[in-house]
Design brief:
GO terms for molecular function: catalytic activity. By secondary structure, the chain is α/β, with parallel strands linked by helices. The protein is about 30% helix and about 30% strand.
Length: about 350
């Protein structure tokens, strides 16, 4: 039997919880979800406090105890500042298959999770490195490159991944190491003044490249961290010393067949030099491919490298990118080839990067 005093006590406790929902303490959370959670606890008589966080949750991890390439689970870490003070070469890839071979070779691995991004520190070819995924496309790449610079002591930045081939002399599986990167989709969308004729506002100044229809490529306005003022810049050059080392590792065994023994028509090769361009579009168009080669003399076209190059230029961090052709950006005879040759291209880019690390001298 329930006594009246028990009912009174229960009602009092319930009323207390409900009043808490309207209190300034809950209002200070600034989150409707938190208020709903407290109120739900009142109705269901859930015990225990509701905890509020004033910032993002970040984590680090202890060293791996299993296989040399395994990363340990994460644990609590400070909410700001560097997570590691060791000077490291940073290696980025856009998505998981591009980083697979490098992750497998990583020794003494530790994982640090920052704002949902996993950073893997350890040794690669005997060198201290930090590996991470930039995410696909330009904004993700720029944002996570800066996050990397903020939380680690990055001495050099390297990108490893796949790309669409633009130069008709290159083939699927080839690895391109451009000496400069530009953003082909930094454009003015011009006014059509007559059928098929376009004009940019005079206020936008002069342009260095011919347009593609209504799209007029232009430089970006940038400022270096230690620079005196704003400048207009289209090309972001890779580090000359890193490029010279890349030229010295020509004898790299590159894959010509996939894991199902499907082989390429031509043996892959390493090509160092030329240009690369990036933009927030997946290109599968033969006409635009011809335009990109003719206009920018580009070997490859991707969705991240120029963004990383710009952030590295601003920070004064030496940069280089290894990009292997997974497809011909619309220049092939049939369906886009990326899904068929993704793993060959990703592994070839990673193999050249590993050879680069072995050849590097501090």
């Amino acid at each position: 039997m329930t006594h009246r005093s028990d009912l009174h006590a229960g009602r009092f406790a319930l009323g207390t919880r409900l009043r808490l929902c309207a209190s300034a303490r809950v209002r200070r959370l600034g989150m409707l979800a938190a208020a709903v959670l407290v109120c739900s606890g009142a109705w269901l008589a859930w015990p225990g406090p509701v905890l509020a966080s004033s910032g993002p949750v970040e984590a680090t991890a202890a060293p791996a105890a299993a296989a040399p390439s395994a990363a340990a689970p994460s644990a609590a870490a400070p909410s700001a500042g560097r997570l590691d003070e060791t000077p490291r070469m940073a290696i980025l890839s856009a998505f998981a298959p591009e980083l697979e071979l490098l992750r497998a070779r990583l020794r003494d691995a530790r994982v640090h999770t920052v704002q949902g991004v996993d950073f893997f520190t350890g040794q690669l070819e005997g060198r201290p490195v930090v590996l991470a995924l930039s995410g696909i496309s330009m904004v993700n790449a720029a944002m996570n490159t800066q996050l990397l610079f903020d939380r680690f002591r990055v001495t050099h930045l390297i990108f490893s991944g796949i790309a669409g081939g633009v130069n008709p002399e290159l083939h699927i599986g080839d690895v391109s190491v451009p000496e400069r990167w530009g953003q082909y989709l930094e454009v003015v969308m011009m006014r059509e003044i007559a059928p098929g004729q376009y004009r940019a506002p005079a206020s936008k100044g002069e342009f260095d490249f011919p347009p593609y229809g209504m799209m007029q490529p232009r430089a970006v306005r940038v400022r270096q961290a230690e620079g005196a003022g704003i400048q207009e810049k289209f090309w972001f050059e890779v580090d000359p010393q890193m490029l010279a080392v890349a030229r010295s590792v020509q004898a790299v065994p590159l894959r010509g067949c996939d894991r199902q023994d499907r082989c390429l028509d031509k043996r892959p090769r390493l090509v160092v030099g030329g240009s690369g361009v990036s933009g927030q579009a997946f290109v599968d168009n033969a006409d635009f491919r011809r335009y990109a080669f003719r206009t920018f003399r580009a070997n490859v076209l991707d969705m991240e490298s120029a963004a990383c190059a710009q952030v590295a230029w601003r920070a004064g961090v030496p940069f280089i990118a290894f990009r292997s052709l997974s497809d011909l950006a619309g220049g092939g005879p049939g369906e886009n080839e990326m899904n068929a040759f993704l793993h060959i291209a990703a592994d070839n880019a990673a193999q050249v990067l590993l050879a680069f690390l072995r050849a590097w001298r501090d």
